[in-house]
Amino acid sequence: MAIIGYARVSTVEQTLDLQRDALKETGATTIYEDTASGKNADRPELVHCLKALREGDTLVVWRLDRLGRNLQDLIRIVGELDERSVKLRSVKESIDTGGSVGRLVFHLFGALAEFERELIRERTLAGLEAARARGRRGGRPPALDAKQRKAALAMMKNRDMSVAEISRQFGVSRSTLYSIQSASKREANRGITGNIQRRACA
Question: Which of 10, 94, 162, 167 is catalytic?
């Protein structure tokens, strides 16, 4: 049963010495180290560290925020470790999932994370319902209003300016202009089809 440490700092200017010393004091024989922001999903040494852990091993970190990018990410990692019978120990928070108190703490963390997700979901649904009550639909507002779309389509048709120049003038991306153009063509096609059907029924 090995004790393996993981350390992380967010920038190259910071030093890992403090974390190294703390992890060595716990008996860690191997320490994996990353230099990456906590929000950065690319933490190659953490990947190697998690792969190296075996049943009965203990993963030690200086602080919990060194391991997870956020609470949900931390709970996910701890859950995966628990499934593999790997314990987690945090030096600063004095948490050890090898004991009943440590496991209880993470059960509480999991419940809080679920509570937070449910609150966000309820607020989102309430916001959409309020918007519908005011006659608005969900989603982003259009990048250009009807008058601007008409002007942009005319400029694209005349070809006096490039699409890149038109996009800069209206402050939108070229893909937005192409989407507006495609939507206009579809609408025109629907109008033609509707006229043909009305004439056939006449």
Answer: 10
Q: Is 173 a catalytic residue?
A: no
Report the C-alpha gap between 153 and 172 in whole angstroms: 13
Record: fold of 146-201: Arc Repressor Mutant, subunit A (1.10.10)
pLDDT of residue 98: 83
* Least-confidence region, from 8-22, 41-55, 130-144: 130-144
Domain span(s) for CATH 1.10.10 in the chain: 146-201
Residue 166 clears pLDDT 80, i.e. is over it: yes
Task: Decide: pTM greater than 0.85.
Answer: no
User: Which residues of the chain are in CATH 3.40.50.1390 domains?
Assistant: 3-97
**Higher local confidence (pLDDT), 133 or 54:** 54
Average pLDDT over residues 148-164: 85
